[in-house]
Amino acid sequence: MTDGTDQLSQLGKPVSTPDAPEQAQLERVENPHPDTDYVARFTVPEFTSVCPVTGQPDFAHLVLDYVPDRWLVESKSLKLFLTSFRNHGAFHEDCTVHIGRKLVELLEPRWFRIGGYWYPRGGIPIDVFWQHGKLPEGVWAPDQGVAPYRGRG
């Protein structure tokens, strides 16, 4: 049985940041514990994109939680995918849901959620939450740990 690392095109190699999310290549590896329900979490405290209207930068703190089935996301490919949003014009809701749907499509997890905690634009923070599936019974999914807006620090 292979863990899928022989199929990876980015890990351990110099790779430039994709110019747009459509150009990014998300990759996966086999879960070494597909018989066990557990939560894997990625925290992205410095996510950036741009406003599709003004072109001004938008900033968010993302938290991605999932209960894997057969697949895990390869973290370098995830980093490159998320970084590809830096010059991508989209509203907060679109960015957050797009990321969640792409990961669910790739991983086919038992459960997935993303919290997008966006910093204020025009004085109003926008938080976006998306979930796929139901958390398996008995699995501990801790609070995402991002405080309600008070400077987010």
UniProtKB/TrEMBL annotation:
Binding site residues for substrate: V73, E74, S75, H92, E93
Q: In which pathway does it act?
A: tRNA modification; tRNA-queuosine biosynthesis
Concerning Pfam families, the annotation shows: QueF (PF14489)
Q: Quote the catalytic residue positions.
A: C51 (thioimide intermediate), D58 (proton donor)
Q: Which reaction does it catalyse?
A: 7-aminomethyl-7-carbaguanine + 2 NADP(+) = 7-cyano-7-carbaguanine + 2 NADPH + 3 H(+)
Which residue ranges have biased composition labelled Polar residues? 1-10
Localisation per UniProt entry: Cytoplasm
Q: Which GO terms describe its cellular component?
A: cytoplasm
The GO terms describing molecular function are: preQ1 synthase activity
As recorded in UniProt, its EC number(s) are 1.7.1.13
UniProt KW keywords = Cytoplasm, NADP, Oxidoreductase, Queuosine biosynthesis
Q: Name one GO biological process term.
A: tRNA queuosine(34) biosynthetic process
User: Mainly localized where?
Assistant: cytoplasm
Instruction: Tell me yes or no: is NADP among this UniProt entry's keywords.
Output: yes
Region entry Disordered: which residue ranges?
Answer: 1-31
- What's the stated role of this polypeptide? Catalyzes the NADPH-dependent reduction of 7-cyano-7-deazaguanine (preQ0) to 7-aminomethyl-7-deazaguanine (preQ1).
Task: Give the record's family classification.
Answer: Belongs to the GTP cyclohydrolase I family. QueF type 1 subfamily.
The name of this protein is NADPH-dependent 7-cyano-7-deazaguanine reductase
